[in-house]
């Protein structure tokens, strides 16, 4: 039971709103800073800040099934609930559960070093210099594009489709869909290529052409690997994270609503 165990808390220590919220909640609930917590003894994780704090919490706890309940003490807070310090235990206990699975990135550098990382939003490949990137695209062993000439390319989860993917003019994907979004970043050739929706069980292989002349970096959420020559990306179903949302704060509804122009002040 949540009442009998600690609640881990991750908050933005550079935000006065988040610090004040942590101090207020600590007076009522058995909170412990997540960095000091034994994740095996924590029944739930609370985040105070913006979506960046939520991503930090997801990565810090990715090897556990501890659910995460976020409260917005930042700006947009798309993955968070509205901040309300009252009845926190009850809200966590009755919240709706959304299951997330991260992308796994396996990057090979120009020195043949292998680096692995996870991304709950997206894996993006970006050119490092003024030289445009050239990227070969293979999906499930089938060559799909000989050479994409672009600033880069990204593969996004449904939860991340409203972030960088959306800024790159990619589609917003409902959370319960069976799809991932593969989007070019400022494509030059093929002209006006709009990207692709692919099945979430797909394995994507991206090979950097002319990698010595046209260096490219790979970024899994905030983990960057420089000077890569190839990347393999797939959804890692071995890691399941649960996000908790108030009953009147459906993440599915907000993701769906983002497909339409919506003025929250109207």
From TrEMBL:
<dbReference type="InterPro" id="IPR017437">
    <property type="entry name" value="ATP-NAD_kinase_PpnK-typ_C"/>
</dbReference>
<comment type="similarity">
    <text>Belongs to the NAD kinase family.</text>
</comment>
<dbReference type="InterPro" id="IPR016064">
    <property type="entry name" value="NAD/diacylglycerol_kinase_sf"/>
</dbReference>
<keyword id="KW-0808">Transferase</keyword>
<keyword id="KW-0547">Nucleotide-binding</keyword>
<feature type="binding site">
    <location>
        <begin position="51"/>
        <end position="52"/>
    </location>
    <ligand>
        <name>NAD(+)</name>
    </ligand>
</feature>
<dbReference type="Pfam" id="PF20143">
    <property type="entry name" value="NAD_kinase_C"/>
</dbReference>
<keyword id="KW-0418">Kinase</keyword>
<keyword id="KW-0520">NAD</keyword>
<dbReference type="Pfam" id="PF01513">
    <property type="entry name" value="NAD_kinase"/>
</dbReference>
<protein>
    <recommendedName>
        <fullName>NAD kinase</fullName>
        <ecNumber>2.7.1.23</ecNumber>
    </recommendedName>
</protein>
<comment type="function">
    <text>Involved in the regulation of the intracellular balance of NAD and NADP, and is a key enzyme in the biosynthesis of NADP. Catalyzes specifically the phosphorylation on 2'-hydroxyl of the adenosine moiety of NAD to yield NADP.</text>
</comment>
<feature type="binding site">
    <location>
        <begin position="121"/>
        <end position="122"/>
    </location>
    <ligand>
        <name>NAD(+)</name>
    </ligand>
</feature>
<feature type="binding site">
    <location>
        <position position="159"/>
    </location>
    <ligand>
        <name>NAD(+)</name>
    </ligand>
</feature>
<keyword id="KW-0067">ATP-binding</keyword>
<feature type="active site" description="Proton acceptor">
    <location>
        <position position="51"/>
    </location>
</feature>
<dbReference type="InterPro" id="IPR002504">
    <property type="entry name" value="NADK"/>
</dbReference>
<dbReference type="GO" id="GO:0016301">
    <property type="term" value="F:kinase activity"/>
</dbReference>
<keyword id="KW-0963">Cytoplasm</keyword>
<feature type="binding site">
    <location>
        <position position="56"/>
    </location>
    <ligand>
        <name>NAD(+)</name>
    </ligand>
</feature>
<feature type="binding site">
    <location>
        <position position="151"/>
    </location>
    <ligand>
        <name>NAD(+)</name>
    </ligand>
</feature>
<dbReference type="InterPro" id="IPR017438">
    <property type="entry name" value="ATP-NAD_kinase_N"/>
</dbReference>
<keyword id="KW-0521">NADP</keyword>
<feature type="binding site">
    <location>
        <position position="149"/>
    </location>
    <ligand>
        <name>NAD(+)</name>
    </ligand>
</feature>
